[in-house]
Amino acid sequence: MSKSEMTEHSREESPVLQARMAGGLWLFCIASGIVGFVAGAPLIVANDAAATAANILANESLYRLGFAANLISGLSYVGVTALMYHVLKPVSRSLSLLAAFFGLAGVAIGGVAWVSNVVPLVLLHGDQYLSAFTTSQLQAMSMIALKLPIQVFFIGMVFFGIQCILIGCLLARSTFLPHVLGVLLAIGGTSYVIASFANFLLPLGARLIPFVMLVALIGEGSLTVWLLVKGVNEQRWYQQANPAKEPLT
To answer: For the chain, what percentages of helix, strand and coil (3-state, to nearest 5) are there?
Structure first.
């Protein structure tokens, strides 16, 4: 292989590029999730199926935007998971693979849950084959379909939380990223897990979510910004990946 080919190969496989792509996708994932929440959440009126149905029908484009934004957020996180596996595998390939597994499992659970958000669009348009149901029944079924993803979301949060804890451990053991980023991310991941089980076990568990999201945002946000702006220390990355070899130049 010629020197130019080796240089090109090194550039394509650059951990700095991979890290910055992960940071960019992570930022896009967070932004899309916020758009999805802002677009969809105001349309849902707690314990009022009729008002919720009226809001969705009156703002269907906004509701569809929220669904699309959440879908994009999930797809973006698949990319984040794959790229973070590549960036962190020099620390421990098996632990990085395990973190990727939990991340993808969380995305799969969330994807299945959010599919039910399409149900109200089917039920509320009152097609002929739905005439066997009353309007109130259709509204009630739509409300159930909207509440189900919230409960399943907490299951997905357990997997995301474990992934964050594992990535935090990998960051703390790495030589090419600041250890404090790993500590912050692991704390955020732990808060995900605690809040999820609190929701299942305690009546007021859901009220922890705003605090959990704040703690998690500090960890995820700090890592996202660092990856996007600084990437990784490329020389140390190659040294940890191949301790017996000189880093590529």
So the answer is: 85, 0, 15
Half-sphere exposure of 124 (CA within 13 A, CB side): 25
What pTM was computed for the model?
0.84
| b/e 87-114 (16+ beta carbons within 10 angstroms → b) | bbbbbbeebbebbbbbbbbbbebbeebb
Whether the CB-CB separation of 80 and 91 falls below 8 Å is answered with: no
Show the tokens assigned to 38: 């802002």
Query: Rounded distance, CA 196 to CA 209, Å?
Result: 9
Q: For 166-200, what is each residue's pLDDT tens digit? A: 999 999 999 999 999 999 999 999 988 988 888 88
Residue 157: which residues within 8 A CB-CB, separation 6 or more? 106, 192, 193, 195, 196
Please state the φ and ψ torsions of residue 197, each to the nearest 5 degrees: -70, -30
- pLDDT 10s digits, 18-56: 999 999 999 999 899 889 888 888 888 888 999 999 999
